[in-house]
């Protein structure tokens, strides 16, 4: 893929921690991690500037811990540390593909990651390095979806690619409801009004205020990251941030 064929120069890829599990129930599945790294490498080598935010749900989820009686702030900080583990794993996988990378953490841990500094992150991207943002926003009560939206705007990304286990946004759970329909495009307001499971409301509101589009697609199909970057996402995913809501 040549640089001129993509409508995007700089993107932020949001991965859930569960995306790294493969078919497992927890942890990191090395073949899945390698496949994702290979797809990211193809884009980076084509001149696309890439930043990545990874959740921590495959290791620990703060909200789940809080529902079991843990202090919410403590549980959220544990979740942030889980994202750091995933970020280091992704860094290792990307560097095995020959890429230059940097992990920037919102929580200081100098031995394994740089502190998050916006100007430094932008400079890394300009030099062709893949930047992985770890530890969310560094604050409890905020999700990694919100962190992805915030970082995307700070680095002036043109789009957020939200990789999931479903091929877009549906009006119902397609695994439970055979009549569920996929949206081809969605407005921000329809996502909020219908409480659709795209990102949390804080993340959607941030994107709406700054007119930052979100492309939701299935990470399980190899090549979908490439297709989304090429502008083909309407064929298999959902674009949030359109001027009107359209069914697929």
Please characterize this protein's 3D structure.
Catalyzes the reversible phosphorylation of UMP to UDP. Belongs to the UMP kinase family. It catalyses: UMP + ATP = UDP + ADP. The chain is built from eight helices and ten strands. With 248 residues, it is of the alpha/beta class. The protein has one domain: 3-Layer(aba) Sandwich (Carbamate kinase), CATH 3.40.1160. The protein has a ten-stranded mixed sheet with strand order 4-3-5-2-1-6-8-9-7-10, sandwiched between helices. Helix 1 (30-45) links the parallel strand 1 (10-15) and strand 2 (49-54). Helix 1 (30-45) crosses helix 3 (72-96) and helix 5 runs parallel beside helix 7. The longest helix is centred in the middle third of the chain and has 25 residues, at 72-96. The two termini are 26 Å apart.
Give the arrangement of secondary structure elements.
Blueprint: E1 10-15, H1 30-45, E2 49-54, H2 62-67, H3 72-96, E3 101-105, E4 114-115, H4 118-126, E5 130-134, H5 144-154, E6 159-164, E7 183-186, H6 188-193, H7 201-209, E8 214-218, H8 224-229, E9 238-240, E10 246-247
Parallel strand pairs: 1-2, 1-6, 2-5, 3-4, 3-5, 6-8, 7-9
Antiparallel strand pairs: 7-10, 8-9
Helix pairs in contact: 1-3, 5-7
């Amino acid at each position: 893929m040549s640089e001129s064929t993509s409508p995007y120069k700089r993107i932020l890829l949001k991965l859930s921690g569960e995306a790294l599990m493969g078919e497992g129930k927890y942890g990191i599945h090395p073949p899945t991690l390698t496949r994702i790294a290979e797809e990211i490498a193809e884009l980076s080598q084509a001149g696309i500037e890439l930043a990545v935010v990874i959740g921590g749900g495959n290791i620990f989820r703060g909200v789940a811990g809080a529902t079991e009686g843990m202090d919410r702030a403590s549980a959220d900080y544990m979740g942030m540390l889980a994202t750091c583990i995933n970020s280091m794993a992704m860094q290792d996988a990307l560097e095995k593909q020959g890429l230059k990378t940097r992990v920037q953490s919102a929580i200081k841990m100098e031995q394994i990651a740089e502190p998050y500094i916006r100007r430094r992150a932008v400079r890394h991207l300009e030099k062709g390095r893949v930047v992985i943002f770890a530890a969310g926003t560094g604050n409890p009560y905020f999700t990694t979806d919100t962190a992805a939206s915030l970082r995307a705007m700070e680095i002036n990304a043109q789009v957020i690619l939200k990789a999931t286990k479903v091929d877009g946004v549906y009006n119902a759970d397609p695994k439970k409801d055979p009549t569920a329909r996929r949206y081809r495009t969605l407005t921000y307001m329809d996502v909020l009004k219908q409480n659709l499971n795209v990102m949390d409301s804080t993340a959607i509101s941030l994107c709406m205020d700054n007119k930052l589009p979100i492309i939701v697609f299935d990470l399980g199909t190899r090549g979908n990251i490439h297709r989304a970057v090429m502008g083909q996402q309407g064929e298999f995913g959902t674009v949030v941030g359109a001027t009107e809501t359209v069914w697929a």
